[in-house]
Each structure stands twice: as C-alpha cells, then as structure tokens.
Queue: 4 jobs
Job 1
Amino acid sequence: MIQYFSVKQNGSVLETTSAESFDWVHLETPSLKEIEKIAQDYSVPKDYLTAVLDKQEVPRTEGLNQQTLEQPILLLCQYPHPVTSPSGFQQFEMFPFSMILTKEKIITACNYATSFTKKFHRILSVQEHVLFPEQIAIQISWNIASLFNKNVQELKKETENLESQLRVSVANQQLYQIMDIQKSLVYFKSALQENLRGLESLLSTSLLLDSKDARAALHDVLVENKQALTITSIQLQLVSQTKDMFSAIVSNNLNIIMKVLTSITVVLTIPTIIGGLYGMNVRLPFANFHNAFWWLCGGIVLLCLFTTWLLKKKNLF
C-alpha cells in the first residue's frame, strides 16, 4: 500500500491522492510492483526499499559520504513489534523501517502496520528553519525511541509481577515467560545500539540538519535512545538475576522434597527391619510372651516417633 501525505505550513499532515504535490510517501506492506514503481519514479535504489521485506535486516545508513546531497540518503532503523511466542506469551521482535531522505521529500517503508507513523498524521510539531522531510524523519525516530521506552516499561512490570509470584510458587509457565522477556530485551538492546549508531552518523554529517533547531531536535532523539538503551541494559541484568533466582528456587524446592522423602523412608524402614528380624526362625527376646505382638507394635511406634522427632530437630524432616 502506498500513501501520499502533504504537510501544511501549520504542521497539519494530510493524506492526499495526488502523487505530484506531496512531502511524504509511505509504503506499508509493499508489493514488489509498488517498490519498483517508487524506485523508478523517484530514482531511489531498490534495495533501500526491499530491505524492509527482510526481517533480519540490520540498521544502517547509506549515502552519507557525499559532498552535496545529490543521491538519496538511507536511514534504516529497527522498531519493536509484539508477537506471540511458541510458549503462548507476548514477545517483541525487531522489524526494519526504512527512511529515505531527498532534497525535498521523504520516503518511508515498512512491512508491517506501525503505530508510530500514525501518531502525527493529524499534526506535526513545526520547527522553524527545519525542512519538512527532516522534521518527519526526526519525529519518526523520536516515536521509535519512545516506543522502545514504553515497551521496556511493560516488560519491567511483567518481571515485577513474576517476582511477586515467586514468593507463592514456581511453575514451568513462569520460567517460559521470563525466557520470553529476556529474549525481547536482548533484541531491544541490539536494535537500540544499532539505531543509535545510525542516528549519530546522521548527526555528524553536514548534508542534512544544517540548522541549530534540527540538530537540537535530533540530539533529543539521541538522548531518548540512550535512555531506552540504559533502561534495557539494566532490566536485562535484572531479568537474568531473576531467572537465576527462579532456577535456584526450583532446585531448592526439589532438595526439600528429596530431604522429606528420604526422612520418611528412614522412618518407614524401622518397622520393616524389626518385622524382618522377628520373622526369622530363630530364638528372639519376648517371642514367647502372650502379648508380644502388641508390645512389639508399641515399641515400633515409639521408635518411629523418636526417630521423627530426632530428624525434625536436625531440620531433616
């Protein structure tokens, strides 16, 4: 799907059906035919657009080594997208988002529907002396960084809920869930690091962002990215510790169960041993007593109770 948008002087972003007077063209889940059309119409390298079709595509920049802006510049970022993991819990995967800047227009592309491109379809924050394509690219980058911050806070809450459940019981489902959280955070950290490198490369070039306002806005985006990266790194360490704690608790619970079962086995062995001795065809004490059986049962019970008390005193029961 191809969408065309024009930006008014007051910052309003309006979708237009005209492919002639627009400032921004956006491709969402594009077909190869649509990619061919945009690449041909606006002299854009085809691989700038087909990159979004590959889920494994890593963030990068291209076209920043020009002396003057003659060829399109590519800023390829990654953004988080919620999916359902094989264990049935929510997990985040990283998908590529392509931003192609020219002198007068910006072309964006992604292979999945995104929320951050729709946030400013109604209004765009206007900054004086900043070109509209640059403003759109900066605001998209800001929205992506904000999305990372929002999602990492969601993962933080999930982790805290798991920690509270830890005091009650530990189930396999909880271990699966924390594994999914850890996997999402690993993806977050890798994507944020690569996005940050791309934005820093864009800030260091003189081809774009030649005004103080534009550079200040991009600097704010960098700060937001660094904040998301810092929180993600901290949360990843905490989740790793929580996962280790889960494993330790499971192991400790198993040890407690084995300890109790061993103690029960020791106690139940007493009547077996005594009964076996008195079942032999040899002369034994009290064998000729009239109430020997009941005295023997009473002695076994007392011996079992004493053994149980002794094991409990040693914290083995």
Job 2
Amino acid sequence: MPLFNEKDECRLIEALKIHIPDIGELLNSPVDEAEIIAAESLIGFQFPHEFRKLYLKHNGEGEQVMGVMAGFSWMTLQSVTGTWRTRQDLPYDIISGKPDAVRKADIKRAGFLLLKMAEVRY
C-alpha cells in the first residue's frame, strides 16, 4: 500500500487525525529539497520517493507528540543523518544500503557490542 493517497495526503497522518485531530500542528515543519539532497549526499544513496515526500511534508514528530510511527519515534532528518554518522564509527559492519547485505555474524557481534555499550552508559 502506498504511503500517500490519491489526494497526496500521508495515510499515516490521516489515520492519526482520527485520534489526534491536530496532529499536523504537532509535527515538525518540513525540510526543503536542499536538506534532503545534502542528507542523500552524506549517506551515499538517493532516498526512496515516498521517504523524500514524507520529509517534504513534515520533518519528524515534534516534542509534544511521540511514537507516531507505530509506537516508534519519527526521527527528524537531522537525527537520521546523525544516527547514520554514529553507526559508521562502529567496529562492525552492520549498516548497508543494499537489501540483505548485512552479514549475520556481524549482526550478532555488533548486537553484543551494543549491549555492552548500553551497560557502560547506564
């Protein structure tokens, strides 16, 4: 199912309006095309059309609402690129721009490392 309907409305936002009528006001202002191009350049691949379209409508969720993505936070584009940068510094290859390209062994080792990092932080 496409993310946007025939009226070019985001289906997710429209569904949320049933429960949170002012959801549009609680989301962040959109990014512009230049910000998307900069993020794509940093990450090294072009975002899918609907992803771009989504961020051209809203740059993630605002501080007054959280978990709009099925209980998960809708990250700002700046958070997306910041997270990508952070994960580039991990000692294991757990990130890939290609489907099914992450090796299972690396996921297990990286998962263990992330758990260890969490223990240190908390």
Job 3
Amino acid sequence: MASASEISAQRIEGWKSIGAFFGRDRTTAIRWARDRNLPVHRIPGGKTSTTFALRHELEAWVRSSTASAKLDAVSERPALALVAVPDRPVDPAIQEDYLRARDWIMGRNARAIEQAVSLLRDITQRAPDYAAAYVALAEALVLSREFGERSDLLAFPPAQFALRTGLRLNPALASGHRVAGFIAYWWDRDMSAARQSFRHALDLAPADPITHFWLGNILADHGEFADGISHLNQARSIQPGSVPILTDLAWAQWSAGDQARPLAALQDIAQDHPRYTVAHEYLAYIALIAGDYAGHAAELALLGRLRMNDTLSARAADIALSLTAGRDAAHRCILRHALNDLAHEPGRTSAWAVLVAAVGGVPGQAVELLERAVRRREQWGEAGFVRGIRMNASGLDPWLDRLTCR
C-alpha cells in the first residue's frame, strides 16, 4: 500500500493543474472527466469541493485502450488521437512554476510577460523535455514585442528556436501549431504556411478561443475581412467579454470599412481598461490616419509608459515638440521615424511609411516608397494601413493592388 507521503506526491490538485498535465486547459479536463472517464477524485466540503487526480492513474488512463478508443472517436481526423499524450514535468514545483508563467502571459502587460519569459527559460533548463514550457516561452516572446519593448528581431528568432524544440518533443500541442501560424504570418510573411499551422491547431483543439482569435486577427490583417471577423466572433462566443478579442474585433471592423462604431468601441475599451496597450495602439493609428498628430503623439506617450518602452516615449516627445513648429514639422518628424524603422528593422514592410507620406499630402514620396516596395517584392497585410492610405491619397491603387495581391 502506498504511504501517505507517496500519495501526496502523486496528487495533482485542481482542474487547472489536471488539464496542464496533458498540456490542455481546465475546461478540457472537466469534459474528459465527464465524457471519457478521466480518473478524477472529489472530496465534498461545504459550498466547495476539493478536486484532485493521481498521477499514476492519469498515466494509466492515457495508456489504456479504452481511453485511446474514446479519443479516436472524437473525430475522424487522426490528428486528434495524439491529444492525450501527457506532457508535464516530473517535479510538481516545476508544474506550479509553469502555471504561474502562463498566468503572467495572460496578464498581457510588459512586466508580467518579461517575468514569464525569465521563468519559462528557467523551466526549460530544469525540465528540458517539457514541451509545453518551450511553446509557452515562444508565445511569451512573440507577445513581448506587442506588450513590451522587444523588437521583432529580438523576439521572433528565439521564439522560433523554442517552438521547434517544443513541437519536436510533442507535435500534438495545439498551442504550438497556433504559435507557428502566428510566426509564419508576422515574421516569415508566409500566409500559406500560417493557414496550414492554424488548420492543424484547430484540428487538435477546435474550440480553442485563442486559436480562433489569432487566426481571425491575421485573416483580417490580410484583408479577408468576412472570414477574419467570423473567427473573431467565434472566439468571442467561447470567451465572452475578453478585452483582447473585443479590441481586435473593433480594429478588424474599422479596417473593413466601418468607422464610427469600431472607433467608439476602441475608445470605450481604452477608457474602461486604460492599461490595455493594444487599444491605445489602434487609436494611435486611427489618429494618424485622421491627421490628428497631437492625438497620435498622446497615444504613443501612453504606450511608451505602459510598455516601459523608452524608444516609444522618446518618439512621442519628439513628435509633441515638433508640433510647436507646426503640422508640416510634425509630419516630417513622423516620416523620419518611419523611414528609420524601415531601414533598421528586417522584415518590416513599407506600409507605415507610405501611410505617413499619404497623410502628410506628399503623394510623390508615397509613390517612391511604393515603387521601392514593389521592387523588393514586399507582401503586405496591414489592411488597416492600406485603408488609411486609400482614405488619404488617390491614384495609388496600381501599386497597392500588387503589394496586397491575395
């Protein structure tokens, strides 16, 4: 008979930790317990009950032919048969650190994501065969460019390395294929590879809200508005009230040609959730497109503070100072920064620089940049920027159509 200390070491406490044992979420663990006889124990207690599982029982369940048959029966797609492959650290303390890092990632702020990156790097050293930790590290790194101060060059290559390791260890992690799709689109500019990765992720986890969210985001950015908004709404239906989903849905709707309603939604989100940076980023874009240089500078200043990004803060101050010399000076300042980014950031397209030129009423410079982009064979998404260019300048469609060819 096992001793009390041995049983305690075997215990995995709570639905969240039980799901993490398989590299899945708490909802999946609850569903498997209900529908597939996942061995879970409950101890009643007042208004709440204690839920736990024993590690050796979960491992036996995975190995059992009954469990395998039930997994195969979920769908005719064979990829789903891989879902139950356990992926967890041996040490419960490492598992707890992993869950803490995941919580920090979901916090979507610069300090929390940097803490997650640091902790996950440590976990991969302590548990080098823990696939989910590598995938989570890749996710934290790509999000650090959006919510922190990392450039694409400092975020994407190490994220790719971590992701490849994670998927080599466990190719059945839906989150890994989702991150692969994200990197394929935003870094490799390979929409075909991105679609394939997201399809694989949805085969493995059809109801994953983050996969629908990220896929909807890239489809809308690529100009496929109907499909993109459809996936964003699917994510919204699974995870109602999610601020990130509502924010990207509003930007997709604005990019698709709506104006007043999505703008009001973004303003409400920024007011109700003032520390959520993406809403301020989209408002900064819309202010620039409207020729509101002061509003653009104000949103950049907020972004700089929230992301702890000294470069953004300095840029906002530079634009604000240039405004004291007039709108033309402010335009030259913003364009100078855009051209500097284009020259020094590999993988960046010319879309933002063309937009700035168009807003400033310099069509000749916009055409020059567009011709250069065509020569470089740039492939644009950035549907919101393209809309802004068309709102501010006419006669550019021949170049825009080539750069945004679907």
Job 4
Amino acid sequence: MPGGPQHQPGRGRQGQGREREARAVSVYCPHCGRTHPEGQRCPCRPRPKRRPTEGDATRAEREPWRTEYSSSAYRKARQRAIGRQLGRCADCGRVCAEYRDGRWYTAGMGGEVDHGRALCEGGGSEVENLTLRCKSCHKKRDDARRAANR
C-alpha cells in the first residue's frame, strides 16, 4: 500500500509491545543512575534492617498494659465497639472497618480502636472506653493527649 505503514521483517506487533512493557517497568535510580524494576528499591539503597534493642526484651515489663490486647475479653469488647459505630470513625465519619464473615476487620481500612482513657493512665478495655477512629483522627487525638501531659 502506498503511503501506509511499511512491513519490517522480523518486527511484528508482539516485539513492539514487549519493548514498551520493558520500558514501562524500569525506572532510573536518582542516587546511582542505574535502572531497577518499578516499585522495588534499587540495590544501591538496601532497606535498613532493624536490630533488636535492649528495650525490646523489657517492653512487657515497662508496659504491662499491652498484654491486655491479646485477651479474649479485649477482642470481644473491640468487636462490639466497632459494631456500635457501624465501622465508621467517631470523629470524621469515614468508613474504616469492614464487616465480613461475622467479624469486623480494620486491616487495610485505616481503622484503629482508641481507648477514651489510655491504658497507661489507668483506663480499661471495657466497651464504653473503646472508640473506633480512622488513623489520622486517632493520631490527632493522641498527639493532643501527649502534648497536654508534657
């Protein structure tokens, strides 16, 4: 066909697509200039590994209230508190919990169960003391509480 695309031997549509795919999945590292797969760290910048500290071994002694989180009473109260709010943040109303298979899930939804009166301040894990908040509202509330305690 005159004026139309010319066929080049050895180059079909499949070859062109693979070239585009290869270009789309590699990115340049701003630190070393080499390419690496998109979404992965460059080998020149390995992820730092956290080494256990002395404080890790004594955390349970320093913060005894944390053992409460694994009790069945806390887990049941937590489920009731989330259900009471129908999975919505108490402050902004954002959906931050999902009900499926007979349970409430906050993982991946950004929900956190907040203690009205913190455990470290003598609060308990009763349903009345638990409130569902989204991550940002929980952070704002905790930051304000910590600032007041300084």
